[in-house]
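Internal ticket - ligand job 139, tetrahydrodeoxyuridine:
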Amino acid sequence: MTTLTDEERKFLIDLAEQARRRAYAPYSNYPVGAALRTRSGRIFTGSNIENAAYPQTMCAERVAVFKAVSEGERDFEVIAVVTPNGGSPCGGCRQVLAEFGLDTVVLIARPDGSLVQETSVADLLPGAFTPIDMGKTPG
Ligand code: THU
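stdout (structure tokens):
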């Protein structure tokens, strides 16, 4: 699994916080930001985008993942997630991340930049159902 320097952590968490400030979360008032780095070095950010029809809301992590995949990048290395209180990625986002590899590092941080947890998709989603279960190669 990737080992990050403090500078890399700070850089990604800062980008996630900037994305968090672009969140559209008028219903929950719980803005979330994410910054996803691929092994090629590209970074894709995301923020949660809510909707008056609540279920149409999209989480920050999935916005970042979908931006990356739609740009041809599926080899994820690390995702930083900033939530108002250091809350952890939801189950749906864990599953979407698992599709593209269990080794992705997950940094969970607060808006002031403090790191709450450094973990991995494998640890966040034990026993994940993955492409292997469908006879496919991950990613
Ligand atoms: N949210 C995320 O963006 N990511 C998560 O992993 C947890 C939840 C968003 C969805 C909704 O807009 C708000 O946070 C409250 O649930």
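Auto-summary: The two ends are 16 Å apart (CA to CA). DSSP finds four helices and five strands in the chain.
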